[in-house]
Amino acid sequence: MHGISCYRDQSVLRIVLDRPDKLNALNTPMLEELKARVGDARDDSVRVVVLTGAGRGFCSGGDLTGADTDGAVVVANEVVQAIAALPKPVVAGVHGAAVGLGCPLALACDLVVAARSAFFQLAFTKVGLMPDGGACALVPAAIGRARAARMAMLAEKIAAPTAFEWGMISHVVDDVNYETELAAVVQKLASGPTMAYRWLKQALSEATLSALPGVGQLEVEGQTALTRTADFLEGVRAFVKRRSPEFQGR
């Protein structure tokens, strides 16, 4: 189903980004499918959602080889807002890379359980773009404006232990214990007070993410303009050829 797999384990809905040959790079059909599966989680029988990635990493970002870049940006923001608005807990299980869109996709979840070897990166400027997927709201809400600007402008890789120290993620665990710890967190939520979680999540979102819809719209406008620049075309060429881009600022 467009690179998205879903599994039900009693009250737990597990959604897997399942395109391991591309490090789970997200294209528009995958994002549409992901949005639909998040919508399925509104079923009363689901008490917690787990979002993970297949293979070596969580998500390498948007698929730059896709033709519908503008459409992907729109749906990406819709997915993130759907996760944030879902009236039940969502847990991201992150191993390996959470890069580009993969970073805000993880941060949209209520809890992030990351393996110690995992890392987070807003790599958008490497191809002449700005962060999207609500990153411009989610990241500063978690770690502050200065660190968010550092991540977004310099495209630095932030190791999971540092992400935890900064307050970006809720859990960092040794790789050998990753699956066990993730399962324990999920099970605790699945057996917890679902209605209390619903109101708690709504209050936390009101306090920290009230700007998300407006920021998302600004990201769509900015990204749409940026995909028409010479710098973006150069960034994609450099990415495909695995060389450093030569940006001209236009």
General description of the model:
The protein is of the alpha/beta class. The protein has a domain at 4-174: Alpha-Beta Complex (2-enoyl-CoA Hydratase, Chain A, domain 1), CATH 3.90.226. 47% of the residues lie in helices and 16% in strands. The strands form 2 sheets. Strands 1-2-3-4-6-9 form a 6-stranded mixed beta sheet, with helices on both faces. It has a 3-stranded mixed beta sheet with strand order 5-7-8. The longest helix has 17 residues, at 69-85. The mean pLDDT is 95.
Instruction: Let me know the average pLDDT.
Output: 95
SSE ordering = EEHEHEEHEEHHEHEHHHH
Strand order of the largest sheet: 1-2-3-4-6-9
CATH superfamily of the domain at 4-174: 2-enoyl-CoA Hydratase, Chain A, domain 1
Q: Percent of residues in beta strands?
A: 15-25%
The overall strand count is 9
Task: Give me the number of helical elements.
Answer: 10
Low-confidence stretches: none
Q: In whole angstroms, how far apart are the ends? A: 38 Å
Quick description:
Helices cover 47% and strands 16% of the residues.
Secondary structure layout plus pairing:
Elements: E1 4-9, E2 12-17, H1 28-40, E3 48-53, H2 69-85, E4 90-94, E5 97-99, H3 102-107, E6 111-115, E7 119-121, H4 135-143, H5 145-154, E8 158-159, H6 160-166, E9 171-173, H7 178-190, H8 194-208, H9 212-226, H10 230-241
Parallel strand pairs: 2-3, 3-4, 4-6, 5-7, 6-9
Antiparallel strand pairs: 1-2, 7-8
Helix pairs in contact: 1-2, 2-9, 4-5, 4-9
